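User: structure tokens for this one?
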Amino acid sequence: MFRVLFLMLVLLAGLIAGPYLAGKQGYVLIQTANTNYELSLVTLVVFFVIAMAVVYFIEWAVRKFFRLSNSTYGWFSRRKRVKAQKQTLQGLIKMDEGNYSKAEKLIGKNAKHSDEPILNFIKAAEAAQQRGDDFNANKYLMEATELAGPDNLVVELARTRILLLQHKLPAARSSVDSLLVMTNKNPEVLKLAIEIYQKSQAFEALDEILPMIERSSMYSAQEFTALQQAVENGLLDEIMNEDGADGLLAWWQDQPRKRHNDNYVRIALIQRLIDCNDHESAYELSVETLKKLDADSEFNQPLYAQITRLQATDSSKLVKLLQKRVKGADEKAGCCAYRALGYLYVRNADFAKAAEVFKKVVANKDNLEPNDITMATYVFEQVGEQDLAKQLRDEVLKSAMAIDTLVTENAEPIIENTDTLLLEQRS
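Assistant:
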């Protein structure tokens, strides 16, 4: 618009100034190497205007041509983009249907023309991996990496998942370690880390990220407690198998106060120390733990169960604590405490006291354990109470016979039904 206005102004000026300059046209000489051009001033102005008009026209034509080419290119680009979006949606539907081969073709075919080509390549890689094609899965991941760069979280998450599906645990472990360095607060990264560390039994690494898992609120309180206890058990077993009792004690010394106050870990450590035949260390930790536990604590019974396995040289402190604990305890807790106390008396060869304790244990029929009758019979024999020992053996024998009779009665109808079925088949 400005150029047209400029030309009109030039022509208007020429029309106005033309009559005035009709008699004073002047003289213009343009001289080259071999030719001289002579023209008036008015002619030069008219020639200049015509030349400008030609230049403007050529510019307009070129611009029009390129605008048309750009529109054509844009039309083809839009067409490819719409087609890619349509194929992506169809591919995702095929993935949900389980047709991974078709899904891979649809999602990966025009991935570069989709709105999110990186996601398309990732989905194509997942589809290829689901049908067991490791080569194409890696190829799509490489293309996604080229577009997104090496530190893209989405691509690295997909790579780690595919490595896990390929059962390449060492590579998956290395990949998830890198992801945790990149971000240790992302829930998806933490979920992958939990799965990979559990499968590779990397309990020490899993123990290190437990605080992040707790802060992420991924699990309920009960679920997180179950996960934490599984990790602690796995970690203790690993240390016990590799370094024995010395390794367990060294690990315990390095733990923070929060874990030192965790009664579940204490009892689990006592169990492993006994398994390692370090009864003295287990005894000291048992005394310390029993002092910390309330009378109604849920950890009393698991601790009593470990005390029955103790073979310490001097168990007097533990005996005194248990004697106080049985007073005022409920029926079930009292039975467990009496059992632990009785085993300590037997280990100390104090059979008289053990007999008194086991009388209370066997009197509680609902909370008896399989070894209680055997141990009680042995104790009664040691103190000369043969009648009571015989009575226990007779009760055990009657119980065993009752079980055999029950099994036989339940089996007879089956035999009768089988005979009837055979007769029907023969007829």
